[in-house]
Each structure stands twice: as structure tokens, then as C-alpha cells.
Automatic annotation (TrEMBL):
Its EC number is 4.1.1.111. It comes from Selenomonas noxia F0398. It is an enzyme of class 4 (lyase). Pathway: Porphyrin-containing compound metabolism. This is siroheme decarboxylase. Pfam families: AsnC_trans_reg2, NirdL-like_HTH. It catalyses: siroheme + 2 H(+) = 12,18-didecarboxysiroheme + 2 CO2. Residues 11-57 form the Siroheme decarboxylase NirL-like HTH domain. Transmembrane segments: none annotated. Keywords: Lyase. The keyword Hydrolase does not apply.
């Protein structure tokens, strides 16, 4: 495989593997590598290469927030001046109760451009977290859109057609 182009069959296997359940053992990468018939060292070398080639960004856990007790969740949207976006988003993303933080384009009739997902044990706690974020960043204009029902809790899956 030429760097920067395409993706090898081995790398597709690795991506599929990393999208699944992560083994809760002392040497998880050794277990994962064995599943596709390679060494732990080869797996880690390929994961490192995929990151360096910018073919994968991260490996992360998905928190099933309701299962750990967070019963109040809201998408808090903010009106952030464009010139403050990077600093404001970085500050909000640091908060331990913010699981997602991303910029969106403004739309006609909707001037909000920064979206944060806040998790709490109550609406009052979510409101307090939003107030903390507002104080820390100086951004006051926000709307809080509370989760009514969760329809889907899965991540995007790649190379599943094979």
C-alpha cells in the first residue's frame, strides 16, 4: 500500500477489529491481534501507521451514559463569535461532563454555531454545567435542548460489507 492512498486488506481487518468490543484484559491488543492472526507488535505498528497516515484519528470508548446513571442529557447550542471559536470550543471540550463539542455552520433563523452535549444527573445539574461553561468562556447566548428519547447509540462502522 502506498502511503496516503488506499487501504490494505490487513488494515481493513484492523479497522473492523477496532470497531468491535474491546477486550477487558491486561493485554487487549495481544488478544485483538490473535483474532486476525498477527502479532501484537504488528497490530500496534499498523495502528500507529494508520494514525500517522491520517486514516484513523482516534480509538475511544463509547459511554452508555444512561447505564452509568446520567439521566439528564442535553444538546446545548451556543452563539460564539467566529474569532473566539477555537479558544471557546477548546475550553468547553475540557469539561468532564461534555462528551461532544463541535462547530456547525449558522443557518437562516438559527444563529448557533457551537454544539456541546452535556450529561448530568438532573436538568438542574445540566443547567449548572452550562452556567459554568458560560462563565468560563464569556458566552451567554445559548439554548438547551434536552433528550426526550434516544433512538440510536452506535458509531459509524467501516468495511462491514465484506
Amino acid at each position: 500500500m502506498t502511503e496516503g492512498t488506499g487501504i490494505s486488506e490487513l488494515d481493513k481487518k484492523i479497522v473492523r477489529l477496532l470497531q468491535g468490543e474491546f477486550p477487558l484484559v491486561s493485554e487487549p491488543y495481544k488478544v485483538l491481534a490473535a483474532e486476525i492472526g498477527i502479532s501484537e507488535e504488528e497490530l500496534l505498528a499498523r495502528v500507529t501507521a494508520l494514525r500517522e497516515e491520517k486514516k484513523i484519528r482516534k480509538i475511544g470508548a463509547v459511554l452508555r451514559h444512561r447505564e452509568v446513571g446520567f439521566t439528564s442529557n442535553c444538546l446545548c447550542v451556543w452563539d460564539v463569535p467566529d474569532e473566539c471559536m477555537d479558544e471557546t470550543a477548546a475550553r468547553m471540550a475540557e469539561h468532564p461532563r461534555v462528551s461532544h463539542c463541535y462547530e456547525r455552520n449558522r443557518a437562516t433563523g438559527w444563529h448557533y454555531n457551537l454544539y456541546t452535549m452535556i450529561h448530568g444527573y438532573s436538568r438542574e445539574e445540566c443547567e449548572a454545567i452550562a452556567a459554568e461553561l458560560s462563565t468560563a468562556t464569556g458566552i451567554a447566548d445559548r439554548r438547551m435542548l434536552y433528550t426526550k428519547k434516544e433512538w440510536k447509540k452506535t458509531a459509524m462502522r467501516y468495511f462491514t460489507e465484506e
